[in-house]
Amino acid sequence: MLTVLESTDSVLNAAWKMVADSRFSVFDALISYEQTAGRGQYGRSWISPQGNVYAAIRLPNTAPFNNTEAALVLSCCIAATLADFGFDIKIKWLNDLVIEGGKVAGILLEQKGEKLIAGIGINLVSSPDSLSLRENAALPATSLYGVDPVVARNLTPEIIVENLADRLAKLDLGSFSTSWRNEAFSRLLWLNEKVCLDVDGSLVTGVLVGIDERGGLLLATGEGIQTFMRGAIRKLSD
């Protein structure tokens, strides 16, 4: 079921209210045409002008969504959905989606008890300018319209989110619990390139060589291959 709002403070807040009222089941989706207080990772605000996708989808609290790989699993599903419309999406570990070198979408997962909701923002028609981005952002922002206006002008938030929710509902979760990693690997941004990972202010440099079965980032460093479960990644200049 898809619920559409004209405006809300946050689609995540609205979705949690629906959960509390027993009106938001697994794979139900909610979109709002604008958010007045959208939020992203680490408490950052998510700029939310009209025209873009601001969605919340309830996910099952089962594998592969009930563990640390959940964000990458969902990223694979969003990338595949956008690929259906002709967009070649890369995944920037851990939960950003990138096209032609610009961030086009992001994910925020929230869990309360046994209930899990994904907040999803996709820049459909517009993206924040460089002055609106946080200082030292790893990538500029872009939009689907900026990449392919002919295709993007025929898309709406409803079309994108309904296709995504339908894809999620039809997943064979048992097989996808093992196959998601290959799909994520094939879309991994900066694979085999030198990157810098900021882990709580501590910087680690190495070559990005993959991801493990828990969604951890694998870096080849001077101390061997190391696994990281959190941090902000950026590409190092050649």
Can you characterise this structure?
The protein is an alpha+beta fold and 238 residues long. It is built from six helices and twelve strands. The strands form two sheets. A seven-stranded mixed β-sheet has the order 1-2-3-7-6-5-4, sandwiched between helices. Strands 11-10-9-8-12 form a five-stranded antiparallel β-sheet. The chain is globular and about 50 Å long.
Structural class label:
alpha+beta
What's the gyration radius in Å? 17 Å
The overall strand count is 12
Which sheet architecture does the biggest sheet show? Answer: 7 strands, mixed
Outline, from the CA principal axes? Answer: globular
- Reading the helices and strands in chain order gives EHEEHEEEEHHHHEEEEE
Q: In what order do the strands lie side by side in the largest sheet?
A: 1-2-3-7-6-5-4
Strand content: 25-35%
Secondary structure: helix percent: 25-40%
* Amino-to-carboxy terminus distance: 48 Å
Mean pLDDT: 92
Uncertain residue segments = none
Number of helical elements: 6
